[in-house]
Design goal:
Length: 226
């Protein structure tokens, strides 16, 4: 998502805010003080604000595909994290609600390991299988979400797993238009790009929800030690 044009993101991103909050609180059980922190996918600053208010750090670098207005106030490294070489060795690499967009998590896990100091921590939340199931049951499309067992298998090759847990949140909306507005402003829609909303598909989707306009978000939290 280009956060330059996503000024309403923080208003509608309740699942992303919920996941970031659980991530930070889980991380605090293991360590709260860091010299160098690197955040992947900082965007509008949902997780950054929690880092600044609840962790102690000397140096913070923010990454994303594009620099948002919020990020311009910080040290940044802009670009695709799967292609970048992270600046310096880090004590903590952290990310929330981003890794579901990355297909080659094996490669990412390997590269992040060598961007951390010995004993450094990789902490992230990511949406997993079961997210937006109400929508994918209609479109027959979905992102290729991993489940918790798959994430454990991928990251245990390079890290010691300190914590791996899953959680979920369910949002309820008054009608389909409100539901679609939420999806529009958060950039998460479970659709690969082949589905187009037309007047007829809107009416079919409206019937599909049977007056229960709910969306499920399921996510994993992993705290890993290098």
């Amino acid at each position: 998502m280009r956060f330059k044009g996503a000024k309403f993101y923080d208003i509608y991103a309740k699942p992303q805010i919920y996941a970031a909050d659980i991530l930070i609180n889980s991380l605090k059980n293991y360590r709260q003080n860091y010299d160098d922190i690197y955040e992947i996918g900082a965007g509008s600053g949902v997780l950054t604000r929690l880092i600044l208010s609840q962790l102690e750090c000397k140096n913070l670098i923010l990454n994303d595909l594009y620099e948002s207005e919020f990020m311009s106030k910080f040290s940044t490294q802009i670009g695709d994290i799967t292609q970048l070489k992270i600046k310096n060795k880090q004590d903590l690499i952290i990310s929330s609600s981003v890794f579901q967009w990355i297909n080659e998590l094996d490669n990412l896990s390997y590269s992040l390991k060598f961007s951390l100091k010995n004993g450094g921590i990789l902490a992230f939340s990511t949406f997993i299988d079961g997210t937006l199931k109400e929508l994918s049951s209609f479109t027959n499309q979905s992102l290729e979400y991993k489940n918790l067992a798959q994430l454990r298998a991928i990251f245990s090759k390079n890290f010691e797993i300190l914590n791996a847990q899953e959680s979920q949140i369910k949002l309820k909306f008054s009608n389909l238009k409100e539901l679609l507005t939420h999806l529009k402003h958060t950039g998460v829609n479970n659709i690969k790009g082949e589905f187009k909303l037309t007047k007829s598909s809107f009416e079919a989707l409206n019937s599909h929800f049977k007056n229960d306009f709910s969306l499920s978000y399921k996510f994993a939290i992993l705290i890993l030690k290098n």
